[in-house]
Amino acid sequence: MIENYWWVRQELNLRSSLCKSNVITPRPRTPDSRGSVVFKWPAAKGVLRETVSEVTDLIEMLEKTGIPMSNGVIEAFLQTEPSDFTDFPLESFWHDHPVPFLVTDSGVTKTISAPHMIATMLHHLELDSDLHVLLMGSKGGYIAALIDIICGKGGRVTIIEPHDEVAEYTSSVLERREQCGLIRVLGKEALEDPTWDRDVDRVLFTGSIREIPDFIELLIDEGGFILGPFGGRIQQRLMKKEWQGGTWLETDLGGVVFGPMDIRESERGFPDPLFIADEFEDALILISSVLGENSEEVRRLERLVESLRGLPPGLPEITESFTDEEIIEHPVIELLMTEAEWLNELWPTFSNILGFDLGGDPIDLEEPLFGKRHSDFTP
Q1: How far apart (Å, rounded) are the C-alpha atoms in residues 216 and 138?
Q2: CB-based contacts of 366: which residues, under 8 Å, 6+ apart?
Q3: Mean pLDDT in the chain?
Q4: Is 121 exposed, middle or buried (0-12, 13-18, 19+ CB in 10 A)?
Q5: How many CB atoms are closer than 10 A to CB 194?
């Protein structure tokens, strides 16, 4: 019986190690911007660098493959040195793939997006001077630096980064750079700060989300819009959602695959039945395509998702103090164990192909499924 929930103990051990990790707390830097790190220097001059030929070759490659590149985006690429944002080798970046910028204490690799994806997102953001752009997820600060150049001296870039390690890294990188306008790095708690000036023109989600968070509607002015990958773990659409006349007008820009962004992640207890239901729902896409929509496994998984969503809210979080008996009696664990006989057969597929566990810290991965691409990068 105990073997059936070994993953519960494994998750508790992981969470315990994270609580004890030596994460640096961001030091206060500005007395006038509570909870934020603000940077403002004279505009960058676009000095020639050793990597200018690599950037130029990259821009030419992107243009040849049909990626939209405005003059403003090209100038931003030319003025921004990628090596300022990562100590990892840039070979993959020059070949139009994501490049890591940080491996967290929990072993999760955080990446700067592939150049074609960055250029595509900048194009669809329709950036102009003096805009206020909100970035949900920092991507190491590289995208913020590009937007800062495009929006100019009157522009503002606000980064909401839910992970402390990534926020600290991003802050330290941006401190060393000259900026055109103003960039600030905030934690997720800033979303609840009523003193924050919420006149946002654009919102860019740099990780996948399932739906627009409620607070976003409070940030967007009439005519402003959101851009981001909407969907589950294995099926997403890059969507542009514009706030017009009290409703969201949607434009589908194609299929993409990004790592998920859950700004509520640190607040989620273990085990969260809604989170597990979301993961299983994503798995249904894969299982249905392999076994067929009417297979017994698919029907069972659909019923399990429904049962997980039907559990009452406010269930207690499992902690290290729980006994084996208390773990077994937890409603979520009890429900999963009743399905263990058939679920155990599918679990390796969920773990290996979808890359998740019940604690759920996936790798930060993205790959395009749309637009013209040269043969080297065809999926």
Answers
A1: 17
A2: 98, 111, 113, 114, 117, 256, 257, 258, 259
A3: 77
A4: buried
A5: 5
DSSP state of 219: T
Locus of tokens 């090596």? 83
3-state secondary structure of 99: strand
pLDDT digits (tens, 9 = 90+) for 245-277: 888 899 999 888 787 775 544 445 678 888 788
In angstroms, what CA-CA distances link 231 with 113, 179, 211, 256, 325? 18, 34, 8, 9, 37
CA dihedral angle for residue 45, residue 49, residue 53, residue 57, rounded to 10 degrees: -50
Given a contact cutoff of 8 angstroms between Cβ atoms, the answer to whether 14 and 106 are in contact is yes
- Long-range contacts, 372-377 (Cβ 8 Å, 24+): 372/65, 372/66, 372/67, 373/65, 373/116, 374/61, 374/64, 374/65, 376/95, 377/96, 377/97
pTM of the model: 0.68
Q: Which of 15-24, 296-305, 361-370 has the highest mean pLDDT?
A: 296-305
pLDDT for residue 244: 87
Beta-carbon neighbour count of residue 372 at 10 Å? Answer: 9
* pLDDT band at 355; cut points 50, 70, 90: low
**What are the tokens at 241?**
């959602």
pLDDT at 189: 78
Peptide bond into 42 cis (omega under 30): no
Output the six-digit token pair for 261. Answer: 């962004």
Return phi, psi of residue 56, to 5°: -65, -45
Give me the sign of the Cα torsion angle 120, 122, 125, 128.
negative
CA distances, 252 to each of 116, 236, 319 (Å)? 18, 10, 42
Amino acid making up residue 379: P
Domains defined along the chain, listed by start: 27-263+367-377 (3.40.50.150), 271-354 (no CATH)
Tokens coding 91: 């070979």
